[in-house]
From TrEMBL, chain A:
This is Tryptophan halogenase. GO terms for molecular function: monooxygenase activity. The keyword Oxidoreductase applies. InterPro entries: FAD/NAD-bd_sf, Flavin-dep_Halogenase_NPB, Flavin_halogenase. Its EC number is 1.14.19.9. Keywords: Oxidoreductase. It is an enzyme of class 1 (oxidoreductase). It holds the Pfam family Trp_halogenase. It comes from Sphingopyxis panaciterrulae. Gene3D superfamilies: FAD/NAD(P)-binding domain (3.50.50.60).
Automatic annotation (TrEMBL), chain B:
The active site is at K79. Keywords: FAD, Flavoprotein, Nucleotide-binding, Oxidoreductase. SUPFAM superfamilies: FAD/NAD(P)-binding domain. InterPro entries: FAD/NAD-bd_sf, Flavin-dep_Halogenase_NPB, Flavin_halogenase, Trp_halogen. Its EC number is 1.14.19.9. The keyword rRNA-binding does not apply. FAD binds at G14, G15, T16, A17, V185, L334. L-tryptophan binds at E343. GO terms for molecular function: monooxygenase activity; nucleotide binding. 7-chloro-L-tryptophan binds at K79. It comes from Sphingopyxis panaciterrulae. This is Tryptophan halogenase. The lineage of its organism: Bacteria, Pseudomonadati, Pseudomonadota, Alphaproteobacteria, Sphingomonadales.
């Protein structure tokens, strides 16, 4: 008969940023008897997953599981909802189109979905007709998150949250403390290796050597625990992702908006993250871009600049050390993908949470899925550079086999093959490519069906949009209501 | 050819794969294509696949076919899963359901809690926690709900007479404009330069020309295998069964089981598939361990009920073509590959190939090499995943009562399967993928059902008080029992909807 494995006695998390603290909450919630200790490491401003306060819709589900209340984020961490991303100037100068979340979650519906997005380009200059309920709500500035399980015309709308990163981290720290997660201010004086390729203990100033069964390295780009491990190898992504640096603009006045804008500029993509506590622009810059072009794209001198050495750990988990966030993978942090990948790593660890004894097969399964996950995130970012204007302006990238296949299939059949562990559903990926102006030829199936199904889908969407617009208040009114209630 | 498309599709073979291909291509790509099917009355059809998977419902619906008409034409009954006997060891049985076992709690899959309670002697058989299993065992049926309730936790398929399916699809396809050509193909004509197939030459001298050829010629694989010489990857070292002796019998009991029975035998296994008017039986065996005469004798002895016909022998070999789409020839069904019907995958594999062909179909008739590669990638992935799952049924056993079982128990399995089995044995976890067939619940059903339990399970399953977990599991079992009690018997459900029933033969 099978026996339950002995639970983890102690887990040490290196890094007290929003990734490390959430990882600590996740482990403590899953295994309350485990002693979880977060050790603060030096602040790493180049760790994008730590400092950018937004992710993708997956995070909402993780938050839910971990008891992190969305309304609390709205009231105490400046959170607001992003229903769609507006892609400006990717398809052509002056062109803009929305890519909404949650376009279609059932992979089997993919080809039908891709057809519904229609063949051919949308009119340049206009956004074209909104392609989903989420996009229509975003355009109208109306939304409130549906509550509970009650049927709502807004229930099929998916969204990402953005928040004030320091306030969010404070909120997480409060939750962690309430759960009994312990904290040590650091620093880590030394790391003692074990004889199995992992770590036996960390020496903390003022606390001596502390052993643990499992170590999570969320210390940012320094990867303080992982770096010294003998088996670590780095997979270079610089051929696949062109940006070599990130310029961050000074925060400007707060604004409420259900969309963020990501514009393609001569200096690289420029993402304007809207927020209730300020608006921040991030500019991802390839090599050889002049300072003047950076300033022009950002609309001012950058407040911060960081180098990007794109790549990932060949194995996220070696011995008893799991690297998470920027310690595991570094890449241009487009539209929430940096924290999204960190959160999906935490979720994967929860799926495969080991006992005191770590089984090598479980570790291999983690690493298999981590590699799929990270590579899919890379390919999702890289697929932006397939936009016509990006192709015109930047040197070609080395597309992975999977990405080359996906782009080719989309271009010739409007088909997005299933990508295991992808950050978005296939339908959302199709929506993204469409918004970017990547041309997809109508599939044989769609040609044979004629225009009837597309018209019926459009009519159905129109009714859904009308109902949703009716049910949703102006977003600023809803936020105001929430803040008064709180 | 007025009003018809310009891309000429030629389907070779009038069996199940041939008529499924012709129907789907004509129905879904009609305006772009013309479809010609060549069949010969001199060549019998195998008619495999009396048992199906839930995907067949999608096929029928997509063609716009009414379920009742389909069931009436093929003498179909409903199917909730497969009841396996004597696989892990003689005397044991389990149902592999079209459904799940329990639900995740606190992020930990149900079966870890079950393992924890079972170790304490506090849990019933894991099948008690699956609505599909409980309904199947009680011989009851009702269609699942389309919400998030307990009644939505299962699916269903059909058990039907495969020899009736192809002729019925023919009647469906001909009015769609499919041209049927009766004749025996004697030669595959190819373009001297490109090597593409240009036409099929018939015994009477006629030539049927086409742009795209679909090879549904069965094991003969006339175009893909013979003319184009595509290699065959042989899997008989892992799946030694290469024969079946099929024999129908009359019903002996009033109720119709809403499931297929699969009973392990000394040289393989036998099926028992209840249709509306008869029971399909067959012994799938390895000719290297059992002679054809012995197998026929064994199925005569084992099958219950009045014999309707003498055993009919089928010969096959497990494996697949290295490339199922080569030049302008697409293999569908047995011409492309074969896996024994242990998990009712034959029609699924046919349907899968047709679906991918339609998704990747060249808009202008000119085939792009990248679409061929994509088709072959997908087909290989599907075959290889199912192959591993089938091998598991043989390998996860303690049977040592026959040379056949000694062979499969001790053989070296594919690395891909060995890794999955080790992960399960050491941690109780299932390797995850979202494409292809057979996910967590299927692997759990077979592992557990065949007594291949993990040595260790998730530490979190031991956190809650076992008495409380037991109470929750009892309450789930009670809710399942209530749902089952509210379902009609399978036969009563069918007779209450008589439009599904064929006239008695």
């Amino acid at each position: 008969m099978s026996v339950a494995r002995e639970p983890l006695r102690r887990v040490i998390v290196a890094g007290a940023g929003q990734v490390g603290v959430l990882a600590a909450i996740a482990v403590k919630r899953a295994s309350p008897a485990t002693e979880v200790l977060v050790v603060a490491t030096p602040l790493d401003p180049a760790a994008f997953a730590e400092h950018i306060g937004t992710a993708l819709p997956f995070t909402n589900r993780l938050h839910d599981r971990l008891g992190i209340d969305e309304e609390a984020l709205v009231r105490r961490a400046g959170a607001s909802h992003r229903l769609a991303v507006r892609y400006a100037d990717w398809a052509g100068i002056g062109n803009a189109a929305l890519a909404a979340y949650g376009a279609a979650s059932d992979p089997k519906l993919n080809s039908a979905f891709a057809r519904e997005w229609g063949g051919g380009p949308r009119g340049a200059g206009s956004g074209g007709p909104a392609g989903s309920v989420g996009a229509a709500l975003a355009t109208a500035g109306r939304f409130m998150p549906p509550k509970g399980d009650a049927p709502s015309p807004l229930a099929e709308v998916d969204y990402a949250l953005r928040w004030n990163a320091p306030a969010y981290r404070d909120l997480l720290i409060g939750i962690a403390a309430g759960l009994g997660v312990r904290h040590h201010p650091g620093p880590i004086a030394a790391v003692q290796a074990d004889d199995k390729g992992g770590i036996a203990a960390v020496e903390l100033v003022g606390a001596g050597a502390l052993a643990a069964d499992l170590f999570l390295d969320a210390s940012g780009t320094a990867a303080l625990l992982a770096t010294g491990q003998p088996g670590r190898r780095w997979v270079d992504w610089r051929g696949a992702l062109p940006a070599r640096g990130l310029a961050v603009g000074a925060a400007t006045a707060p604004r409420l908006d259900l969309t963020d804008t990501i514009a393609l500029t001569d200096a690289g993509w420029c993402w304007e993250q809207v927020g209730r506590d300020g608006v921040t622009r991030f500019l991802a810059v390839p090599d050889g871009v002049s300072e003047a072009a950076v300033v022009a794209a950002l609309g001012g001198a950058p407040a911060d600049r960081f180098a990007i050495e794109a790549g990932r750990q060949a194995e996220g988990w070696i011995g008893n050390v799991v690297a998470i966030g920027d310690a595991a993978a570094r890449f241009e942090p487009l539209g929430g993908i940096a924290l999204d990948l960190a959160h999906r790593q935490i979720d994967l660890l929860l799926d495969l949470l080991p006992g005191r004894g770590i089984d090598p097969r479980e570790r291999a399964e983690y690493n298999r899925r981590f590699a799929l996950m990270a590579d899919a995130a890379r390919d999702w970012i890289a697929s932006h550079y397939a936009a016509p204007e990006a192709r015109r302006r930047f040197a070609p990238i080395e597309a992975s086999e999977a990405l080359a296949r996906l782009l080719d299939q989309f271009q010739r059949h409007q088909r997005v093959p299933i990508v295991e562990e992808a950050p978005v559903a296939t339908g959302e990926w199709a929506g993204l490519l469409h918004a970017l102006g990547v041309q997809g030829a109508r599939s044989a199936l769609s040609m044979a069906e004629g225009d009837g199904p597309g018209r019926r889908a459009a009519a159905l969407l129109e009714r859904k949009v009308a109902t949703a617009l009716d049910a949703a208040p102006p977003y600023d009114a809803w936020i105001g209501h929430m803040l008064r209630e709180g | 050819m007025s009003g018809r498309g310009t891309i000429r599709i030629v389907v070779l073979g009038g069996g199940t794969a041939g008529w499924m291909s012709a129907s789907a291509l004509a129905k879904l790509l009609g305006p772009l294509v013309s479809v010609t099917l060549i069949e010969s009355e001199d060549i019998g059809i195998v008619g495999v696949g009396e048992a199906t998977l839930p995907h067949i419902r999608g096929f029928v619906e997509r063609l716009g076919i009414d379920e009742a008409a389909f069931m009436r034409a093929t003498h179909a009954t409903y199917k909730l899963g497969i009841d396996f006997h004597d696989f892990g060891r003689i005397g044991e049985r389990y149902v592999h359901p079209f459904g799940t076992f329990g639900e995740k709690v606190a992020g930990v899959p149900f079966h870890h809690y079950w393992l924890e309670l079972a170790a304490r002697g506090m849990a019933g058989p894991i099948g008690d926690y699956s609505l599909a299993v409980a309904a199947a065992k009680a011989n009851r049926f009702a269609p699942p709900a389309e919400d998030d309730s307990l009644r939505s936790t299962y699916g269903y398929a059909y058990q039907f007479d495969a020899t009736l399916f192809a002729p019925w699809l023919r009647d469906f396809a001909l009015p769609l404009g499919v041209t049927r050509v009766e004749g025996l193909v004697t030669e595959v004509l190819r373009d001297g330069e490109s090597g593409d197939v240009t036409a099929l030459k018939l015994a009477d001298g006629r030539e049927v020309a086409g742009d795209i050829f679909v090879d549904c010629s069965g094991f003969r694989s006339l175009m893909l295998g013979q003319a184009l010489g595509e290699d065959w990857e042989d899997w008989s070292h892992w799946l030694p069964c290469d024969r079946a002796a099929a024999m129908p019998t009359a019903h002996v009991e009033a109720e119709i089981q809403p499931y297929t029975s699969v009973i392990a035998m000394p040289g393989g296994w036998r099926w028992r598939i209840p249709l509306q008017h008869r029971i399909g039986n067959g012994y799938v065996f390895a000719s290297s361990f059992l002679s054809e005469d012995e197998a026929c004798e064994a199925i005569r002895a084992a099958a219950v009920g009045e014999r309707i016909a003498e055993p009919r022998l089928l010969r096959f070999r497990p494996g697949r073509r290295t490339r199922s789409w080569s030049r302008n020839v697409v293999g569908v069904g047995l011409a492309s590959g074969f896996l024994e019907p242990l998990e009712s995958t034959s029609l699924y594999l046919t349907q899968m190939a047709i679906t991918y062909l339609i998704e990747l179909f060249p808009q202008d008739g000119r085939i792009d090499a990248r679409d061929r590669d994509e088709f072959n990638r997908l087909v290989d992935m599907e075959y290889d995943r199912i192959r591993d799952f089938l091998i598991l049924h043989y390998h996860a056993t303690v049977r040592d009562d026959a040379p056949f079982w000694n062979h499969v128990r001790t053989m070296t399995v594919p690395d891909t399967l060995a890794a999955k089995m080790e992960l399960w044995r050491e941690t109780g976890r299932i390797e995850r993928y979202s494409e292809g067939l057979f996910y967590d619940a299927s692997w759990i059903a077979v592992y557990m059902g065949q007594g291949f339990l993990p040595e260790r399970h998730d530490p979190r399953a031991a956190i809650p008080d076992p008495a409380r977990v037991q109470a929750a599991m009892r309450s789930l079992r009670g809710a399942i029992a209530d749902e089952v009690a509210a379902m009609p018997g399978h036969r009563a459900y069918l007779t209450g909807r008589a439009e599904r029933l064929a006239a008695a033969p």
